[in-house]
Amino acid sequence: MRAVESRYSAEKHMASVNLIFDDEQTTYLRELSEKMNLDFGEFIPHATLINVAEQDIPRLKLAAAALPSLDKLVLDGVNFLPDEVGNCVWVELRVQKTSWMVEVRRKLLEILDDIHPGLDIDGFRPRITLGCVEAGTLGDVNMSAIPRQLPVITKPRAAACYNGVHGKVVEVVE
Questions:
Q1: Residue 5: its pLDDT value, please?
Q2: In a domain, 9, yes or no
Q3: Which domain of life is it from (predicted)?
Q4: Is residue 44 part of a domain?
């Protein structure tokens, strides 16, 4: 099985505000990705709150800092999402969409109104991407690596991030 890169253009997702996790939880997610035979690569595990087309990192840092804190993220399953052209399948952990998430998404859309690419609250689908595989190789994904009871991610924190050339988070900007 070979990992594939997203077909999204870098202009579409230059930067983002995400929920990121402590070192132990990040390590757990990377190890789960490996056990499932996915290639996580250089990407940082996260739950996206908003992607934007501009790299106004100072403004994104201010937006992230303005968000209220969150005690936990509850993971409730695995999604398999084919890309738009059918070349790959994204493997994701579903995150429960809580009222907190809906409210911070609304707040981010308001704060970043002039730089987000026409996003809305209803289309928001919280998740943690574990990897991407070529279409047709999904059978090589080790589903037995997924625990019966997914862990709760405790004390995630909002942060501004740079998304790199493939549109995936590669740097948390402190």
A1: 41
A2: no
A3: Bacteria
A4: yes
